[in-house]
Amino acid sequence: MSKIFVDACFGKETPYTPVWMMRQAGRYLPEYMRVRAEAGNFLKLCHNPKKACEVTLQPVDIVGVDAAILFSDILVVPNEMGMDLEFIKGSGPKFHNPIKTEADIDRLIGAQEAASKLTYVYETIELIKKELDARGGETALIGFTGAPWTLATYMIEGEGTKTYNICKKMMYSNPALLHKILAKVTEVVKIYMQKQIEAGIDVVQIFDSWAAAIEPGKYDEFSWKYMVEIADFLKEKYPHIPIIMFPKGIPAFLDKVYGNFEVFGVDWSTPMSLAKEKLGDKYVLQGNMEPCRLYSKEATTECVEIIQETMQGERHIFNLGHGILPDVPVENAIHFIKECQRVSKK
């Protein structure tokens, strides 16, 4: 069964431009909040394949998106590498044992063992796949990982940060130590994504949420090259699985983008016209509506029409330029999906 989303990732002709939303399985849906409450907390929900499957499918059924994205979290990777993770209400994720020294890195669990501990993710994928196949198999399932740089920032800082001063201090004063962390995380991610593919995902997305924290001259060295290494590893084994790269906030260095992948995710701070000019001939583009436009149906329609006009029916996947926010009305999210399908219908 041909999936419209997978076809679009490979730049094939589709009856309309498919659409999904980052963080589409989440807090804006009352149905999600109910399941999360049943699970006990966010991390317990990630560890419960049956409930994680249920919330993965909610936006497909309720909002009408063209692809499901696995419900999980990027930080399950460092968690299973031996880092002590807690999600604290009101302040987000926290590692109680951040990495400071080479000895801390050496204590981390290796790639095969860490990836093998993520069985709850692979079980979730198998359950989702079974459900999607039972519905006709037309909806694609996206698997994902955080980029090594984004994961490393949490591992070094211990929590979210606005300045990145601890990991950037390491970048400039002890780059070898940072590269050792990045290399170790990269090896885990390679096997983790391989196991996601073997469990049944159709598409891989690599999120570099903190890409904008690195100055342009250092971005390739400390982030992009590791993402490309993961993509190369997966492409060699699974050429039929499209890969989406999403580095947030790098409009200044689109010229430097390279690698063996199919789709480039455009964040909302990057003009779609600029991304098209720089990358449209090499990659399918995904994005890039400003998520806050979802608060207004009029603003949503305006942006969808502008993006469609910019892309002119060329290789594209509709999405937000980052994740949907928790207080967006569900009807507005549905409106966004329907408008994307309306303006792009061939």
Could you walk me through the main structural features you see in this protein, from its secondary elements to its overall organization?
A hairpin with a 3-residue loop joins strand 2 and strand 3. The protein has one domain (about 5-345): TIM Barrel (Alpha-Beta Barrel). Strands 1-4-5-6-7-8-9 form a seven-stranded parallel beta sheet. It has 15 helices and nine strands. The radius of gyration is 19 Å and the shape is globular. It has about 350 residues and is an alpha/beta fold. The mean pLDDT is about 95. Belongs to the uroporphyrinogen decarboxylase family. It catalyses: uroporphyrinogen III + 4 H(+) = coproporphyrinogen III + 4 CO2. Keywords: Cytoplasm, Decarboxylase, Lyase, Porphyrin biosynthesis.
Tell me which CATH architecture applies here. Answer: Alpha-Beta Barrel
The total strand number stands at 9
Quickly count the helices. 15
Tertiary shape? globular
| Largest beta-sheet characterization | 7 strands, parallel
Query: What's the gyration radius in Å?
Result: 19 Å
Strand portion: 5-15%
Mean pLDDT metric: 96
Q: Indicate the percent of residues in helices.
A: 40-55%
Strand order of the largest sheet: 1-4-5-6-7-8-9
- Give start-end ranges of low-pLDDT stretches: none
The CATH C-level name is: Alpha Beta
> What's the number of domains?
1
Q: What pattern of helices and strands is seen along the backbone?
A: HHHHEHEEHHHEHHHEHEEHEHEH
Which structural class do you get from the secondary structure elements?
alpha/beta
Q: Say what the CATH topology is.
A: TIM Barrel
Distance between the termini: 21 Å
